Amino acid sequence: MYEKDPVKIFVVEDDPAYTKFLKYVLELNPDYEVQFYTSGKECLANLYKNPAVVTLDYSLPDMPGEKVLSQIRSHDPNINVIIVSAQEKIHTAVELLKLGAYDYIAKDHETKDRLLNSIHNARNRTSLIKEIDHLKKEISEKYTFEKSIIGTSPAIKRVFSLLEKAVQTNISVSITGETGTGKELVAKALHYNSKRKNKPFVAVNIAAIPRDLIESELFGHEKGAFTGAITRRIGKFEEAEGGSIFLDEIGEMDMNLQAKLLRVLQEREITRIGGNQVIKLDVRIIAATHKDLSEEVKGGRFREDLYYRLLGLPIMLPPLRERGQDAIIIAKHFLDQFAHDNGMQKFKISPEAQEKLLQYPFPGNIRELKSVIELAAVMAEEQELRPQDISFNSTTRMESFLYQEMSMQEFMYRIIRHYLNKYDNNVLEVARRLDIGKSSLYRYLKEMETIGI
After folding, report:
1. Which of 33, 262, 367, 380 is 20 to 30 A removed from 244 (C-alpha atoms)?
2. Could you tell me which CATH class the domain 7-138 is placed in?
3. Which CATH class is domain 320-391?
4. Of 112, 104, 113, whose CA–CA distance to 86 is shortest?
């Protein structure tokens, strides 16, 4: 994409003969758009044209080379400045490279090849920078609140309101909600709408890392700090410098590490395992858990002081069953996305299928809805989802009973129906599994038939 764009090159050279040589060398490549200047001031006056590369003679009559370099860097640090000089002093080259020159080339018989190679590499670097900038812009647009967090229910609008408050400051944010409600998605939306959006977003799932490795994962270690530490490792906190670190499932962290994390949050600094260097941190903390941390504190499983450090601005994500029509809005979004990703025509969801989705409590929340919708799209015979295309995992269906308001007798009938379906209506097997008498089971079946269950 970016490789095909013409590369704008400024040549700053006061020697007419050498200018002629550079003109011949560079204009052989049709992808290069070359402009020539004989002084530093002339070059600086034209920087508004945004060159990708400047080849700069170190010994100009009007300005020292390092001064021109410094002003180019001040204008745009992404411009690649290649110093071309008759001087071959090593310390001069080193100083210019320290000041930000991309390369230093001596004027000799190898200049042509070295210069072309350096411009080629600089071009690749410029293309990469443009691509990264483009991706950053894409990510920021993807994670705008309205695009990443879909829904119009009052419950989700409250989340929007809290997020808008959170992005205005660096306050820590704690996100709670059932599994599958989109905690990491909300964390990303928070980061990419904040002033830190061009810095790293680093996610760490505390529950997924072995207990003996979590400290090294978070804070890093020095070479030789322990058996197996064959190189230095940068921890997640250092990776997130200037940006945000998302500590998912923070409630799973053991008490010993909680104490170390508390100190990091208090001091805003870390020391790698086995090291002595104190590393200052500028990182926003976003923590998430499906547990009730206040109950964990009462139970002695989570430090109270760490709880209040992490609490910051609390955001509670509502379960999907409390978001009404949002389930249909999100289902249509997943359906469109699935069709697009698989080169299929767009689907519709029939009113009957929508009603089936709304009646189901989705204990797995948005994650489960996505799975259900994608399977329905695969199973559908037409471009409209019908009730028979939508199926729910039997285990999940059993769990979903807990979210329905029924009498104990109704619960019992539903459990019996589930076991009959599971064991092909084998009454003896179901009676054995549920540890009830066969005659009692037949009586329940008759009652169920009467009320239509």
Report:
1. 367
2. alpha beta
3. mainly alpha
4. 104
